Amino acid sequence: MSVSLTLVIIMGVLYAAGVYAMLERSLTRVLIGFLLLGNATNLLLLIVMGFPGTAPFAGEADYPGDEGAHSDPLPQALMLTAIVITFAVSAFLLALIYRSWQLGQADTVEDDAEDLALRTRTAEAEAALGEEIAVEAPTDFVDAVAAPLRAIDGADALGLLPDAPVNLPDDRKPEGDRE
User: Fold this and answer.
1) Taking the model in full, what pTM does it have?
2) Which of 14, 17, 127, 149 has CB 3.0 to 4.6 Å from 40, enough for a Cys bridge?
3) How far apart are CA 143 and CA 178, in angstroms?
4) Cβ–Cβ < 8 Å for 33, 18
5) pLDDT single digits (tens) 115-154
């Protein structure tokens, strides 16, 4: 068994344990599961990083164009990012756990009363929800007169020009302008 196969097996176990722990109702177990997932992700990035023990740009190159034993720097940057994200989300989860402990002296997530009511819905309510209701909603655009768009200047927009055409339906025009 080689070192890389051992790392792959450990990474798989960490992912499995992390997902299993995150499916619990206890917020503390969710935090532990998230930390396991973060460590498994860091281990995955360590596995895909490249040659072990070499720096990203320091290799055994004899001249500048030579391909030496270089390690890929991108997974190293991704690992640093993953560490920061894991730290931030862990701090947020710790704050949630602390607040939950302050309010209810427990860190378990309970079912909401509305959620329980939705689960115990009767068959009649399910059938009533399945019926389609045809409602014709009126809009403001029924019987509207379409007018072409035109560019206006400030005086026209303020209504200072008396000869500016106004395209309004007859029912919306002032009493003196109706035909």
Assistant:
1) 0.56
2) 14
3) 17
4) yes
5) 777 777 765 666 666 665 555 555 566 566 666 666 555 5
Catalogue all structural domains in the chain, each as residue range(s) with its CATH number.
1-53+72-109 (1.10.287.3510)
For tokens 């270089």, what's the residue?
70
Residue 55 main-chain phi, psi, to 5 deg: -75, 165
Give the amino acid at 46: L
What DSSP letter does each residue of the chain carry, written as one string? --HHHHHHHHHHHHHHHHHHHHTSSBHHHHHHHHHHHHHHHHHHHHHTT-STT--SS----SSTT----PPPHHHHHHHHHHHHHHHHHHHHHHHHHHHHHHHHS--BPPPPHHHHHHHT--HHHHHHHHS--------TTTTPPP-------HHHHTT--TT------GGGS-GGG--
Do residues 90 and 34 make contact, with C-beta atoms less than 8 angstroms apart?
A: yes
80: closest CA among 36, 41, 35, 34? Answer: 41
